[in-house]
Amino acid sequence: MSRGDVPDRAHIVGTGLLGTSVGLALQRAGCAVTLEDTSPTAGRLAADMGAGVLADPHPDTELVVVAAPPDVAADIIVAQLRALPEATVTDVASVKGIILDRVRSQTVGDELDRYIGSHPMAGREKSGAVAARVDLFEARPWVVCSDEHTPQHRLAQVVAAAEAVGATVLHLEPEFHDSSVARVSHAPQVIASLMAAQLIEMPVDGIALAGQGLRDVIRIAASDPGLWTQILAGNASAVRDVLIGVRDDLDRVVEALSLEPGGYGVLASTIAAGNEGHQRIPGKHGQAPTVYGTVTVVVGDEPGGLARLFSDVHDLDINIEDVRIDHATGHRLGSTDLMVLPDRVQDLVVGLGRRGWRLPEHPDAEGQDTSDRPVGGSASG
After folding, report:
1. How would DSSP label each residue in 213-239?
2. Which of 49, 52, 171, 357 sits CB 3.0–4.6 Å from 352 for a disulfide?
3. What is the DSSP letter of 91?
4. Residue 158 to residues 1, 10, 21, 296, Cα–Cα distance (Å)
5. CA 17 to chain centre
6. Do residues 354 and 362 touch, judged by C-beta distance below 8 A?
7. What are 217-263's pLDDT values in tens digits?
8. Which of 177, 196, 173 has its CA nearest to residue 235?
C-alpha cells in the first residue's frame, strides 16, 4: 500500500455499525472524515464517538464510502458521484451485483468509472453507531469488485483505504462475491434464525438444557430483521439456490430418520460431509486449517478467574490458539476449552494441574489439588 493513495479526506454516508466503524478507523489512519446520515441523531452519535465531523463534504474529498442498506445504496452512490465529480465512490453493502446493475443503469459518461463496489467481511450481531469499533476490520477480508476497465488510481484509493483500516483486500467479481456470501453468510443467517425460532414454544425447563452447541448455531439469530430482509432480497437468487440444496439434503435426513434400510448410511454420510466442509474453513490469519488439542478447565463464576487462568497459561509459555466458554446451568461455574497446538496439550495439563485447576477430562493430572485454592472466575473476569 502506498501512503500516498490513502485519502486525506473521506466522506461517509450512513452512520450505522459499518459506517461509524469505517470513520473511526480512517480517522485513526490520519484521514479527515465528514459524516452524513438521514437521521440527525444517528449522525451526531457517530460524531460524538469520534468517527468524524457531521458536515457537508469538502469539495476536495477524494473518497466517498456509502454505508447504506442495499435497497437504497445505488441511489445514494449515484447522488454522490454527481455531488462530488472528482471523488471515487465505494460502498460496503453485502451484495454487489444488483447494486452495480442499478448504478450502471443510472450513470452517464465516465461516472461509472468512479464507482468501485466493495464489501468488508466484518460485522456484529449488534447494529448502530453505538456498536461500532475502531478495530472492526482488523485482519478481516475486504472484497473489492473491479474489472479491466477500472481506472487504476481509483482502485488504488479504495484498496489503500481498506488496508488503512486494517483489512486484507480480496479482488472478486460481483457475481462470484454474491454466490460466495450466499453460502458463508446469508444462508447461514436464515438457518440460524430458523433453528432459534424452534425455541419459541419450547418449555423453559427444556431450554435450560441448551449447551454451547446450540449457542454456536444460533449466535447470529439476534441480527436486525429489517436489515437482513434487505440483504436477502438483494441476493435472493443466490441464497435461494443454496437453501434449495440444504432443503434437498434435509429431506434425505428426514427420510433416513424413519430408520429404514440405508437410513444409517445417510445419517453417517451427512455428518461426515459436514466434517469435510468444516475442515475447509481457513485457520487463524487465513492460514491452512489446523487441528488443535483441547484442554477443558472448570472456572468459577467470580471476578478475576479467567485472568488468573490466562496468566497461568502465559507463565507456562503456551499460546492459546482459541478459546470457548460454556456456562453450567444452575451453578456458578462453567467450563473453558483452551485450544492449543497438539504437542503442548500434555504440558498444559500438567502445568495447570500443578497450579490447582480442575481438569475434568484429566482428573489424574500431576499435582492437581484444589483444596486450598478457589476455582477461577467468570467469563468477564
Report:
1. HHHHHHGGGGS-HHHHHHHHHHTHHHH
2. 357
3. E
4. 11, 11, 16, 44
5. 12
6. no
7. 999 999 889 989 999 999 999 999 999 999 999 999 999 999 999 99
8. 177
